[in-house]
Specification:
The chain has 213 residues and is mostly helical. It has two domains: 47 residues, Arc Repressor Mutant, subunit A (Orthogonal Bundle), CATH 1.10.10; 144 residues, Tetracycline Repressor, domain 2. Helices cover 72% and strands 0% of the residues. It is elongated. The relative contact order is 0.10. Pfam families: EthR_C, TetR_N. InterPro entries: EthR_C, Homeodomain-like_sf, HTH-type_TetR-like_transc_reg, HTH_TetR, Tet_transcr_reg_TetR-rel_C_sf.
Length: 213
Amino acid sequence: MPGSPSVSEAVAQRPPSRGDVRRAALLQALERLLRDRPLSAVGIGEIARDAGVVRSAFYFYFPSKEAAVAELLGDVADELLAVAAPFLDEPHGRDVAAVGRTMRSTVAAWRRHRHVVLATIDARDDAEVRRLWNAWIDRFVAPVAATIAAERALGNAPDGPDPVLLARLLLSMNERALERHARGEDEPSFTDEQLADALTTTWLSAIFGGPTA
């Protein structure tokens, strides 16, 4: 029938189900609680109360609070990968503007979600949390390594360290620099823009070599 929505469009237009609303409320409650205390000090009953549901409802959606944190981290990763898409989707050569936008967006995203990210970092002594964090970082390794390899294959970047190793090193640098910045540990202090510019310069130099301009 002309004008009728497709099945996928109809599904997309449906309002969130009651289960979707409850699940989102639990994640929002966890993120709020992490603003004030470490993950180890947040109880599942407390998360449920803050979300306005009974404790048993939490376990319907998540087997543990660590699994709920993984969901929050997954959302942050999706956001970061989306903002990095112009840089990662296809080779551009030494595109200072694209890398700069990616780094500025990355710094901004860490600032918005710093409570979740820092709470997870602080809880990495727990084996499950450490596994979740490593899996989160690994989501970025493959696309960055693929971009490095593609730029080299096209002659835009010189040969160098293994692309996966270089990707891990660059991401580890970002992780530590962004963590210190989010905690306010930089001495002297730097603005978000200064940090993004420094990361941009370092990534361009590491991947393409030579000057960044």
